[in-house]
Design a protein that fits this description.
- The termini are close together.
- This protein is α+β, with helices and mostly antiparallel strands and 145 residues long.
- The chain has one domain: Electron Transport, Fmn-binding Protein, Chain A (Pnp Oxidase, Chain A).
């Protein structure tokens, strides 16, 4: 079984613009989404807020996974209601996605519709432990079978 430490996971995410996510435990496929790291948290927002999209699926079934290369990492989705964290996510989106064609979508992601969909993707370890950028030494994930 291949694993990443929490440190390795966040090091990879710090260099990435996109993230592959599968919402829920059903037949949803992995799709690419934009995300930001804020205070050691993986935050994501829905741009389209589709009724059958990843965000609404996570609201019904908060378990899912992210994929880093061939490694699948279980996550738990937690809606973010705190305005201070949402404000920090706004700044992070505008800073991270600030070039060329990206800025148009980044501006949409900080609008009220998308801002209301702010969700934290919390990596989970076997045994139910969770990870953040502050986690030391733990590992998470498995190679897709």
């Amino acid at each position: 079984m291949q694993e990443l430490s929490a440190h390795e996971l966040f090091a990879v995410l710090e260099k990435s613009k996109g993230l592959r996510v599968r919402a829920g435990m059903g037949e949803h496929r992995f799709i690419g989404i934009w995300f930001v790291l804020v205070k050691g948290r993986i935050l994501a927002r829905s741009w389209s807020v589709k009724p059958s999209g990843w965000y609404r699926t996570f609201l019904i079934q908060p378990r899912g996974a992210i994929r880093i290369g061939e490694i699948e990492i279980p996550v738990r989705a937690v809606p973010i209601r705190h305005n201070g964290l949402r404000d920090a996510a706004d700044r992070a989106y505008l800073e991270k996605y600030s070039t060329g064609w990206e800025i148009r979508y980044a501006k949409d992601l900080v609008g009220e519709k998308s801002r209301a969909t702010t969700i934290e993707l919390v990596p989970t370890f076997s045994g139910g432990h969770t990870a953040s950028a502050r986690t030391n030494g733990a590992s998470v994930g498995h190679t897709r079978q």
